[in-house]
């Protein structure tokens, strides 16, 4: 395929940043109106996607977003992540149907309510709007930057793609062992970053990234569920459940982890993580 001109790359990138920022603001308003689990999840995803594209602005020196902006969005992601963990745990424990889990679910619900109240207070502050002004400056900087050749754009994108893939290559040999939870968690994050980059790459260059993105989503789904089980198990440990109930919950988690481990190993065998640069 023919790579678009450097100026076209910057134009599409600036439009993509603006699109991601608008989506964040839309999801923010949705949460402010009604902070139900789906809205929390969607705002969290929007914040992660925005952070991913803001990171790519560093490829083009004319358009930089200050550290204060990225830190603000990162704090938002973390706040939302805590609430999302509680939402997932409430759904999981409620769905088990075990008598005696009601006190744990009630504590989780109260924590969620406190965290949501803090989140709504934080979202109503002007800090995100202030960040928006910095993002607007970056977008204008991209649009007004001097022309970049197609070859320069290709080199920058290819180098960034390889940088994001290298952690995946380093982690892949270690994640076959179930006890390597930290490595699997790190792989999930690395895959997410590479997936977001390839979403951007497809938009900027017109490359067909559908197959690669679907593969990365499959990995993220399995690893995300494994991570959820680890969170649920930690919550049980802190809850100090009655011995019989604790054993029953842990056995259920262990069975599900075993099934997911098998799914993950099958995925590694059938769809190994090879480096792909789609330009």
Automatic annotation (TrEMBL):
Domain of life: Bacteria
Location of the CHAD domain: 2-278
Pfam families: CHAD
SMART domains registered for this protein in UniProt: CHAD
Gene3D superfamilies associated with the record: CHAD domain
PANTHER family: CHAD DOMAIN-CONTAINING PROTEIN (PTHR39339:SF1), SLR1444 PROTEIN (PTHR39339)
Name of this chain's protein: CHAD domain containing protein
Origin species: Trichlorobacter ammonificans
């Amino acid at each position: 395929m023919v790579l678009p001109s450097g100026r076209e790359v910057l134009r599409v990138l600036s439009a993509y940043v603006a699109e991601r920022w608008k989506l964040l603001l839309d999801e923010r308003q949705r949460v402010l109106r009604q902070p139900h689990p789906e809205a929390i999840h969607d705002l969290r995803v929007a914040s992660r996607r925005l952070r991913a594209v803001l990171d790519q602005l560093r490829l083009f020196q004319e358009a930089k977003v200050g550290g204060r902006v990225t830190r603000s969005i990162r704090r938002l992601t973390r706040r939302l992540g805590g609430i999302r963990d509680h939402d997932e745990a409430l759904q999981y424990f409620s769905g088990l149907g075990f008598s005696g889990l009601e006190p744990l679910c009630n504590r989780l619900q109260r924590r969620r309510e406190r965290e949501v109240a803090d989140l709504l207070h934080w979202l109503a502050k002007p800090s995100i709007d202030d960040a928006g002004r910095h993002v607007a400056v970056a977008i204008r900087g991209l649009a007004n930057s001097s022309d970049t050749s197609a070859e320069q754009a290709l080199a920058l994108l290819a180098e960034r793609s390889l940088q994001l893939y290298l952690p995946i290559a380093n982690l892949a040999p270690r994640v076959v062992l179930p006890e390597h939870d930290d490595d699997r968690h790190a792989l999930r994050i690395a895959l997410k970053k590479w997936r977001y980059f390839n979403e951007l790459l497809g938009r900027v260059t017109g490359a067909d990234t559908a197959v690669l993105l679907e593969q990365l989503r499959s990995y993220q789904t399995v690893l995300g569920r494994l991570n959820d089980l680890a969170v649920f198990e930690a919550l049980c440990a802190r809850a100090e459940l009655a011995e019989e109930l604790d054993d029953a919950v842990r056995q259920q988690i262990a069975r599900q982890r075993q099934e997911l481990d098998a799914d993950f190993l099958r995925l590694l065998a059938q769809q190994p993580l090879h480096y792909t640069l789609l330009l």
